[in-house]
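Pilot study result, target chain (235 residues):
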Amino acid sequence: MVPTAVVFDWGGTITPCGDADLRDLWNLVARVAAPHQARPLAEALERAEQAWWREALRSGRSGTTTEVLAAVAAAVGVDVVAAVRIAAEGNLEARTPHTIADPEALLVLHLVKARGLLTGLLTNTNWPRLWHERWLVRDGLLGLFDARIYTNDLPFIKPHPGTFGAVLGALGITDPTTAVFVGDRPINDVWGAQQLGMRTILLRGGPVPGYDVVPDATISRLGQVLDVLDAWSTE
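Predicted structure:
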């Protein structure tokens, strides 16, 4: 079936951070919260986020940065919530290299839309929507997505079918088989999208966990999405 919409993952796909955490964000927050203990606090923030993600992936439950910060604050006795607010009000978007979009993302999104296709963004995240959208604005991408779904606004994370249903609903897509999902994680992105009948494109290259699943197409760089879409459009 000819595609009518393409939904992209963010981390590791639109933004090539792969399995990297946003350590620079935690370092910035730690320097604000406890300038004389910034390094141990940043390490505590990292550990707390990693533990949060392990539990989230095990349970499928979504959550927010506030939950991570509350756990860290309880463990280290530092008001990191205020520090995050201060850091976010500063030049946060210019100091987060793990958030910078793939150099091909801007052209790819323009050309996908030029083909008459809807575009969506669906990402597992506990970071606030505001931060993500500031990064997308910075990289000129925000207006190129017809729908943007962040799992911290949902009760669950990918690969839960409700996440994919949320972005398809926001796009007005009633037949999932006409939608394509592009992501870098075999279980979260490929297997998750396939549960609803979406076609999938796996972007290989990042240090992510494997999974016994077969995507409909595999690419090694983001720009190759266009070749796959063009091939499917002529089937």
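One observation from the pilot: Residues 23-95 form one domain. A full batch analysis is planned for the follow-on phase.
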